[in-house]
Amino acid sequence: MKFAVKAFSNGTARAGVLHLDSVATAIDTPSLLLSTRKGLPLFISPDLLSSLPSPDSRLLHVSPLHFLEGLSVKTISKIGGLHQLVGLHDRGFVAFPRDSIQCLPEATAANKTGASFETPCGRLLIKPAEYMEMISSMKPELWATLADEVPAWVSNKRNKTSVDRTIKWLDECIALSPANGAVFGAIVGGSSLEERQRCAQEAATRNVSGYWIGGFGLAESMDERPALLNAVTEALPEEKPRLICGLGLPEEILQGVAAGVDLFESTYIYHLTLEGFALTFPLERTRINGSNLAPNDAGIDPRKINLRATVFRKDTTPIVEGCTCYTCQNHTRAYINHLLNVHEMLAQILLEIHNTHHFLGFFRLIREAIKAGRFEEFRKDFVRSRYDHLVEEGSERVLLAR
Amino acid sequence: MALRFEVVGRFKRARAAQLTLPHFECQTPLFMPVGTQGTIKGLTTNQLEDIGCQIILGNTYHLALRPTSELIDELGGLHKFMNWPRALLTDSGGFQMVSLLHLADITEKGVTFQSPVDGKPMLLTPEESIQIQNRIGADIIMALDDVVKTTITGPRIEEAMYRTLRWIDRCIAAHKRPHEQNLFGIVQGGLDPVLRDICVRGLVDRNLPGYAIGGLAGGEDKDSFWRVVAQCTAALPGDKPRYVMGVGYPLDIVVCSALGADMYDCVYPTRTARFGTALVPEGVLKLKHNAMAKDTRPIDPTCACMVCKNYTRAYIHSLVTKDAMGSQLLSYHNLYYMMQLSRNLHSSIVEGKFPEFVCNFLQKMFPKGDVPEWVCNAMEVAEIDISSCCAPFRKD
């Protein structure tokens, strides 16, 4: 793995380039990792995956915990690792246990021997040694060390323990490192600036290729997050990549970018897709402002549409006019509305394709803004555009709702 | 008539043909996957084209409920609505009514049933069925028939057969788009050869573009099944397509093709995929079994589909019945298998290698030579020598 920062904007937001052996083209950052279940996207089958923008869509997050229900470490090794297992040879796999959809850290059940996760197989205790066995058999391009993630409300004592354990497991995991694959040191610290800093400083002294920032998206507020993120990134060497888990919404991604994070795992696409939403905010290079968005009644989100709504029953336009994704090139809002109404799987397939395509477009806008030196401006515009039409209505209650 | 049917190869009763429909030029024998609600579960139209699907079925009953045939018509027809450029076939809606609905009652007027939406009594007449299908716009539409289960005996079967003939005239009269949509009649008559014969003659008199053999694939024993197919294919005109409704097991398709049938439909391949069962030359492979968790072979080493080329049984095992992707990949493979079977039937007949194909097929499925007796009997009537694949019968 090779990584280099190419541009800064507003001090800490940065655009970089990531090279992985398995991916022919360099990947520009900030970049999104696509969510998977057992190595493949939830709904986008491998032959349709290639229709997504490239190389933007080449990074896939895999949780080793997914394989615990039904595929042994031995069998995965025999097959030859992730690339062989899922038949995707030109992608980059990034492995870490937490999957913000279905493998969530369970802080109360972790102990000094291992981290605990709530999974579809029940509650599992994962120790560094067995975690590294999984990593060794899967052979991902990047992987994070095991962390003890805790939610924002735990006691100072529990939080401090989580940092101690995470650092200890970092060293244990590194000691068991497989020959290939780049290791990202895990950083936690909850809602304590001091602990965040301490953990980051420790990780910074270890021989790792990058950093995995955990413990976010676990009940901390959006307001306290920027300071915590900065406490981490300020303690880390600039030239190594930073990956974060648990920031889902576009605004949260922007918080991460502002603090100097390069790679993101997000559940946004998953939740949109399952609930029948499709992203529609404009992706042109022009500034996003209220007048770009279609006129709407008060209260309707200009960012996305819910295709279950009856207003789309006869709408023969694509989700987004001009979108080059498979869904918009081939199908109409009316058809997807019908598929949702009759509970057909094809609805989720088509929505996951479009939403992934669109969200990747959002990341492209972020990168362009950074390279043009106007990231903060872009960020302010984007956040404000959500509320512009509501401000005109003068409704503060609605502003505070999100 | 909106189709052309040209036989391009024969072996005894079996035929390979070119079936030219308004939206697509098809090669028979062929299998039609069922896209009940305007989609084949879990597959895109792109993938269906990649696999080689030629005709897809839409279910009139389901589509009339949601999103309604009026909406489909307003948006330009089902082809446009689902963006399927190839051929479509819709059934009459009658079968679902009888099989899905509580208190469905058949009278001379039509099928009366309780609306699943609000419980009010509703009536599906032959006229209404054809009008709905006209609005949906499929290349082939099916007449509303009075279908009875083959496990029923008695005067009901005769009543149903004669009613089917009376209803075909009402269907023909109601059909507004004969130059764009082909109305197929359906032969009924239960397992009674006399009734079947009367029905065939009656339908052939109406000079329809194609004919279906209905009322089978519903629990009758295999011996009765093949005999009805054999009788009907012998009696139906040779220059028109013959469609055996509801037939989906690969073995049944091979036998029916040997007897002279051309088209088939069934939910079996896609439905069984969702339960974790793959179609393979040996029969079926149940991927849910624990033994599969360690099996690093592909589902079918002889299959050229994307799933068999890239995935192990172990991986698919970890997905099936748990993740949507498992359904998708297995449906993809199973339909590919059925399309490949269709292609093999067509090409082996054209190339004069049909008996070899049949023997090969049976040998793989019955390696011990225990080919079921009904298959042997049917192949005898079809004049195909399968003695090389059958172990000698023991009369103990």
UniProtKB/TrEMBL annotation, chain A:
Which terms under GO biological process does the entry name?
tRNA modification
Q: Where is the tRNA-guanine(15) transglycosylase-like domain?
A: 13-387
Q: Does the keyword Repeat apply?
A: no
- Where is Zn(2+) annotated to bind? C323, C325, C328, H354
- Please provide, in alphabetical order, the Gene Ontology terms of the cellular component aspect for this entry: cytoplasm
Gene3D superfamilies attached here?
Queuine tRNA-ribosyltransferase-like (3.20.20.105)
Keywords of this protein's UniProt record, alphabetized? Cytoplasm, Metal-binding, tRNA processing, Zinc
Q: Does the keyword tRNA processing apply?
A: yes
Q: Which GO terms describe its molecular function?
A: metal ion binding; tRNA-guanosine(34) queuine transglycosylase activity
Give the chief site where it resides: cytoplasm
Localization, UniProt: Cytoplasm
Q: Which cofactor does it need?
A: Zn(2+)
Its transmembrane ranges are none
One Pfam family in the UniProt entry: TGT
Q: What does the cofactor field's note say?
A: Binds 1 zinc ion per subunit.
What family name appears in the similarity comment?
Answer: Belongs to the queuine tRNA-ribosyltransferase family. QTRT2 subfamily.
Q: Give the function comment from the record.
A: Non-catalytic subunit of the queuine tRNA-ribosyltransferase (TGT) that catalyzes the base-exchange of a guanine (G) residue with queuine (Q) at position 34 (anticodon wobble position) in tRNAs with GU(N) anticodons (tRNA-Asp, -Asn, -His and -Tyr), resulting in the hypermodified nucleoside queuosine (7-(((4,5-cis-dihydroxy-2-cyclopenten-1-yl)amino)methyl)-7-deazaguanosine).
Oligomer status and interactors: Heterodimer of a catalytic subunit and an accessory subunit.
Protein name per Swiss-Prot or TrEMBL: Queuine tRNA-ribosyltransferase accessory subunit 2
Q: Which organism is it from?
A: Hibiscus trionum
Automatic annotation (TrEMBL), chain B:
GO CC field:
cytosol
Question: Which EC class heads this enzyme's classification?
Answer: transferase
An example GO BP is: tRNA modification
| Domain of life, source organism | Eukaryota
User: A single Pfam family, by name?
Assistant: TGT
**The entry's keywords:** Cytoplasm, Glycosyltransferase, Metal-binding, Transferase, tRNA processing, Zinc
| Cellular location(s) | Cytoplasm
- Residue ranges occupied by any tRNA-guanine(15) transglycosylase-like domain in the UniProt entry: 13-365
Q: Does the keyword Glycosyltransferase apply?
A: yes
Documented EC number(s): 2.4.2.64
Enzyme active site: D91 (proton acceptor), D265 (nucleophile)
Report the principal subcellular site. Answer: cytoplasm
PANTHER family per record: QUEUINE TRNA-RIBOSYLTRANSFERASE CATALYTIC SUBUNIT 1 (PTHR43530)
Q: Which family does it belong to?
A: Belongs to the queuine tRNA-ribosyltransferase family.
The UniProt entry, under NCBIfam families, shows: Q_tRNA_tgt, tgt_general
Q: What is this protein called?
A: Queuine tRNA-ribosyltransferase catalytic subunit 1
Native organism: Hibiscus trionum
